[in-house]
Amino acid sequence: MLEKLKAFLDLKAICFVLSVFGASYVAYTQVGQHEIRLNIYQDKLVTLEKNELKVDSRIIVLEKAQDRTDGQLEKLNVTLNELNISLVRLASTLENMNKKGT
């Protein structure tokens, strides 16, 4: 009976050692997989940050171009107003000349 108990305990110890080894192996492989995924996500994050910087610089360029365009449109508006005033004066001058001429 003592030998059966000893054999059972030996079997139990072997199973315990194998289960600890198996659990360690599974944990090691899972950690490795998670590290690989983490590295992939970090690479993607770095790429996204670089793309964000590019987009920000493009936005700045577009905003500067928009400011230049706005300035040019304001100048065009002023010029058109001056032209309109000049045309009104010319029309009134021509109208006065026609009245004096007839």
Helix content estimate: over 70%
Mean pLDDT: 91
Largest sheet: none
**Strand-residue fraction?**
under 5%
**Overall SS class:** mainly alpha
Overall shape: rod-shaped
Radius of gyration: 43 Å
Distance between the termini: 145 Å
Number of strands: 0
Tally of individual helices: 1
Please mark out the parts with pLDDT under 50 across 5 or more consecutive residues, or reply none: none
What is the H/E string? H
| Multimeric status of the protein | single chain
How would you summarize what this structure contains?
The protein is mainly α.
How does this structure look, described?
This protein is mostly helical and 102 residues long. Helix content is 98%, strand content 0%. It has one helix and no strands. The protein has one helix at residues 2-101. The longest helix has 100 residues, at 2-101. 0% of the residues are buried.
Q: How would the blueprint of this fold be written?
A:
Blueprint: H1 2-101
Throw out a few tags for this protein.
102 residues, mainly alpha, rod-shaped, 98% helix
